[in-house]
Structures
1.
Amino acid sequence: MSQDTHNHSHGHDHSHSVGHELPFWRKYIFSTDHKVIGLQYGITAVFFLLFGFGLMLLMRWQLAFPKQAIPLIGKLFTEDGVLSPELYNQFGAMHGTIMVFLGVVPLGVGAFGNYLLPLQVGAQDMAFPKLNLLSYWVYFIGGVIMLASFFSPNGAAASGWTSYPPLSVVADNGQTFWLIGMVFLITSSLLGSVNTIVTAIQLRVKGLSFMRWPVLVWAQVVTAFLLLLAFPPLEAAGVLQLMDRLAGTSFFLPSGLVVSGEALKVSGGGNPILWQHLFWFLAHPEVYVLILPAVGIVGEIIAVNTKKPLYGYKTLIYSIIFLGFMSFIVWAHHMFMTGMGVTMSTFFQATTMIISVPSIIILTTYLLTLWGSSIRYTVPMLFAIAFLPMFAIGGLTGLPLGLTASDIHLHDTYYVIGHFHYVVAPGSLFALMAGVYHWYPKITGRFMSDTLGKIHFWLSVVAINGVFMPMFFMGMAGVSRRLYDQTIYAHGAAAQPLNVFMSYCAWALAVAQLPFLYNMATSWKWGKKIESNNPWGGTTLEWATASPPPHENFTTPVEVFRGPYEYSSNKKPLPQFVQEA
Amino acid sequence: MSVIIPYIDKPNPVTGVTNAKLGIWLFLASEVMLFGALFSTLIILRSSATDWPAHGSDVLNVPLATLNTVFLITSSVTIVLSWASLKMKNLMKFKLHMGLTVLLSFGFLIIKYFEYSSKFHHEHYPSTSTFYAVYFTMTGLHGLHVIGGIITNLYLMGPGSKMWKTEPERFTGRIECAGLYWHFVDLVWIFLFPALYLL
């Protein structure tokens, strides 16, 4: 293997060339360096996360104080400063779309995957650097289209992030923007996932067998397979919905549809449930796309900060693979209420119960790793530990939704929102924040401030639970999830104080992110310098090189001699890349 | 120092494939899911319809589509021959066979154009019925794949073939990948033909 590489390097020069000889725009804008592209993904994704969060902060005003003008900035949106029902729907749809497709996934997969995966397998770049460049810019264009839709005549898409027909087909032009934007985002994901899988499998250095891959590499590869195989059906569905909107077809429009009192002039014969199947065939694996990179990041951080091998590494890996496989056959548990029949519901109820088993195994391996260890409470470790109960709450509250009987009551209420936000917000996002704190020294050569980090952590963990915990109670009180003003119903008015509390917590959560953003921005220049290239005592390959890594990642050849998380009996790390015991 | 990416022209001894070949197979897997979703759409719409609006064998031009099937299958043979010519170190023969492939694919598109225009002439549009919606969407998307293949093959036949002088193995690998993609486009048609025209 090394022989081959050696010959190759003398034979030809396929490489994109040296960092410092390139002009600025080739080095930082249209770079093919996976580290630069990773950072581009990261910065863009953080921007979109803040934007999507901002939309929700405005919506939370309307939810807490219905039909009152938004103070200070309300006049920017409407004449009287009150968030109109139309805008509320647009913000809701775009909040979901932006957070999922433009925020969390690009951060977990695009940023962490791009930056760390080649380093962790000992490669000098991704397998297809130009394709990598293309992936980022296609994603960027998709994002621009989504943002541009706010300025289209009737505003952005307003049919929810799920875009259920027939409403989405008869909706205003924003929906067309949404569909075209999605086609770009899907294409970007496809290119990126091919690149990830090929890099991880083909460019492994000598000695790095599959069962020596760090858990993050495994998580990224399984995620890439989910994106690769689950996204195309949504691309197909997007094309069909575009046809429905632009060419007047009736893929998702049944015969005899009446809109605003008039019969719709279409051929009919379509099936709106078909969209739901195609959509959830992507969107359920998508949930695991959101969570798996987070699971990988948390595994890395726990191993380093407990100075112990991960408990049951192989079981953990098999669980991740099984989870990925199962995620393809649970999608219709989102559709119990569509009347698809008892047989189908029972099947999807069973698979849903089965998929909770590997999730619990993953959590258990992490918990057992913590057990009896001397934990080093760094900021990333705090976030990683918080991830465990948060993800557990998110996962366990999903079980009543996966059981057909209890789903009848809970379906489409705030309970559902509480459930998946626990998985994605204090779950995935906490893990991603942990990753930022953990690998910041790798990327910049400087630490982020510990004090600011702890302020960020404690404020966030309190505020975020204040936002999402009451949702379970509100949902069980029967409040529907997409209501503009729930106080018009007696049961909604009774639960309204919870809404006010959640809104205050959401705004507090926003304030809690300020030290994080300040910390991220200023530590780049003024943070405490790291003393060694491996400040945390990490054992995986990304720590085998300088921090920040040079353009070609590894200046001397690296080789792997052991599993990813091995420590001697006195808790001294035994890095993968060091030969002597 | 410059970045070195291994296994661009020679296969990885552990996996037995080059990067590009693994990449194209993964890409094709995603394409299978894309067309799989469209075929599922056809199956679901047709099986749940009380009265399926039209049958392909009645309203579509089966002889023309048969000729198109012959064109595509032949082009799959010629693209393999073009790859084999490179294996035998014969660039001229490669260009000849690749040229034939491109000609046949143009032939396919021209026939498709006549089919489409005759449908439009009879005022059969995607909005006419669910059958025509499926017909135009699926053959249209397949047609886009044919166009993509033609662009790739023309590039590899023309400016792209310069690589033959500097990196013959890598170039041969590219032709193999283009061939795999082309076979896939062919295969989709082989499913489309009976599903839309015959059943």
2.
Amino acid sequence: MIRNMTCIVCPMGCTLEVTLDENGKFVSVAGNTCKRGEVYANNECTNPVRTLTSSVRCDNGEMLSVKTSEAVPKEKLFECMEEINKIIAKTPVTAGDCILKNICNTNVDVIATRSI
Amino acid sequence: MINKDLVIIGGGPAGMSAAIAAYESGISDILIIERDSHLGGILQQCIHNGFGLHKFKEELTGPEYAYKLECKVNELNIPHILDTMVLEVSPEKVVTATNEKDGIFKIQAKAVILAMGCRERSKGALNIAGERPAGIYSAGTAQKFVNMKGYLPGKKVVILGSGDIGLIMARRMTLEGAKVEAVCELMPYSGGLARNIEQCLNDFNIPLKLSHTVVEIEGKERVTGVKIAKVDENRCPIPETIEYIPCDTLLLSVGLIPENELSKDAGVALSRITSGAVVDQNRQTSVEGIFACGNVLHVHDLADFVSDEAEIAGIAAAEYIRGNISNETEINLKTDGKVRYTVPQKITAYTDTTVYFRVSDVFRNVKVVVKNGDKVLFEKKKQKVAPGEMETVKITKDMLENVNELKIGLEVL
């Protein structure tokens, strides 16, 4: 089986043609121009993940931009958003500070992307 | 009057990158003037990831990219003033600025770098029929509301224009609980990056309606819906295809315009195509000692490319201040229409130059060709080129011998 997709690893956006076996398992990929594209294609067919970015309210009323320290499973994005929207971050904050540990049991933290 | 070697107008990625490059080239008497209350410019509201892969070899969000530059500016002690608006730049490089504390003041600069960025095209430019209710925002305004202020501008959204900001906002509004009904794009292709169509629309099953536009906005106090229609090959709406989409919000992502009011006052010649200055390989404008870089020069896809360009301008401004820049030649770079514009538009020294260009349409299987008259000096094949993605071609020193004009074009294979 062939699955077509666009690589989202970098702004080049390579068009990938992924070959899957009869069980839907990753076999090979064509169209990528770098090694990361192959990793992406494999992930995308087994466990698609995305880096989630958002912003949270701080105790001083300002908004703080945050991101997940690593990509989280795509199907958990909305669940993670619910958790992120409950956060009230304590100031002062430095970019890189952990704001919430292990969001939705993903082993991924939410970290600040700016300082306030 | 205050005297400065180099005044940089704008403290976004272009201004900061230019300042760092100029400083590292040996000029330390610099002043960055920023109108907002923090450095970083529009990057502060671009909280999504995807920045920095070229420049810093890691994936960063907009604020993180800005923070890296800001840390460097602070580490080098490059002077900058915030909350300060530049009112005028004269051809003699006198910069007039104002802020709450100092009132109106003038600075005589030896060189000026214009790094004011761009602004969004607004609804007024679109001639959409209907009422003028609340609920119509440019995508960047909505981005500021959601990311910087914590407000959701609406719950049922239609987006007109598929530029990157529109795509990013489709995802952002969806994640915050809004329903994005459709993204309409007048052209038969998207102006955004392919990866953004994938991760911002396809991930959330948001339909991208190519060759579609909004023909009417309904609602008296607040938007209640929009009428959209398919357009023919002349981009005229086809009446039989009109459909009504109920919604409370319309976001516009219909292009960016370099913000060149100050440049005009300074007598800088502007290109009708880019709406930015006409520059040489040093990013020097038609006014000697005034340089331009970043989105004020032409709209970029990536902040990384903005930084690259700003470094060229920063280094060149430092050389200019030391009296090391002279025009050895003037070679104009012409385009064939398929290539819509180039930056720079001219080359004034016998040196290797990377020329950035944008194409006018989507073309597949093409050759990028550099010609002197009928003589082909360089060609390279490309599988696909699109208006949304900036391309480059390298002009080497030896192509410039005995030439006064080069033509950069596309040949479809």
3.
Amino acid sequence: MPASQRDVRNRISAVKNIQKITRAMEMVAAARLRRAEQRIEALRPYVGAIRRMTRDAAEATGYVPSVPILSERETVSTAGLLLVAGDRGLAGAFNSNVVRAGIAVGREYEARGLSVLYFASGRRPSSSLTFRGLEPRESFIGFSDRPAFADARRIAERLMVAYVDREVDRVEVFYNGYISPMSQVVRRETLLPLSEATLLQDEQASGRALGDGQADGERGEVRQAEEQRADGQTQAEPAARRIYIEYEPDPEAVLKRLVPDYVKLSIFRALLESTASEHGARMTAMRNASQNAGELIKDLTLEMNRARQAEITQEIMEVVAGAEGLG
Amino acid sequence: MAHSKFPVQVLTPEGEVFGEDVEMVSTRTGLGSIGLLANHEPLLGTLVPGELRLYRSETEIVRFAQAEGYIQFLHNKALLLVEEALPPDQLDRELLSRRLADANEAAARAPEGSEEQAAALREARRCETFLTIGV
């Protein structure tokens, strides 16, 4: 039996209401995405400057001092996995992709006889892990919309404490890397132990992981100034090209302070990329939902017209039958 | 007497918070308070939580609550990299008090000499310093 006009009309109005919500959510996500992209850009000059300082301090000491988070463990018995995703859903496969990738690696480690400790950033990965019986060791929630550096520092401090105090022997992070509003890819990176190569590798090679990339006006300016000064001196003595810098307290202490910053910045970068990815994924998901709602409205309108036509036809037939009966 | 000015840039991971010419920078390093005037000798130092003062003139001072970071003075330009630089009126004192209590509790609970205790003490020191910075 065809649905009555009123039923179909009610369904159309319900779908229209949903479409209004999905359209609004799409627009909100688009606005937040732009801000999230700007925040990734804003991190670049800071990371560039940290890298320059590290290089200068390492040149002054001539070696990288021994810092606990740089030392690799001979045997790895416990792995820490940090899953970074969102506090909210309605963003397509954004949350589940990270959780799935993290759990797959966790299972692989367990199959090799390692213990696995999960850490979660975001309500979704935290509840997904709990639901699967893999209670996270610690969850960091409430900031996935707009993470502050203080949030990244809190997570980094917790993980470094776990590493230095030997709760874990290795830490990896899983997050949605931001490529474009339409495209995100799950990235897996080793956070701890930090490799010396990460500290001293050239800026372009390490650009993606820490977010300093290539475009950095401020860096260009300082280097240019240094080069101008260097040009005035003899080329035969590279050592003389360097300016004497007073270190406070000393280059080694400065370097020791700089090393943990790389972990904090890697996590901050992951949080910022994850946030941009979340807004991008939500924008796409909501756009699809709005389109689907539009199609559904079209189908239902057609159905309602048919029902109305059927009712009219029925009424005409009744009138004709009545007239015939009278005649 | 007015001092000559020099450019200062204060960067945080969340972006630039200050970029102007000033007469003097006053901040706190691992060794104590420091004041930098134009033409200071090249310097690279670590910063600890404290009050950062940027003197546009003797009377016009821009203040920030600074977290841990670094200061570099090179080619008559100062570059400060700090994890956080917040105007004093934007400090959430209630949240800071809560975090200070949590950090102190965590430091007391953590094993003596552990990294956990060191991290909690760093957090406590930061919160405590921020709370002493007046509006």
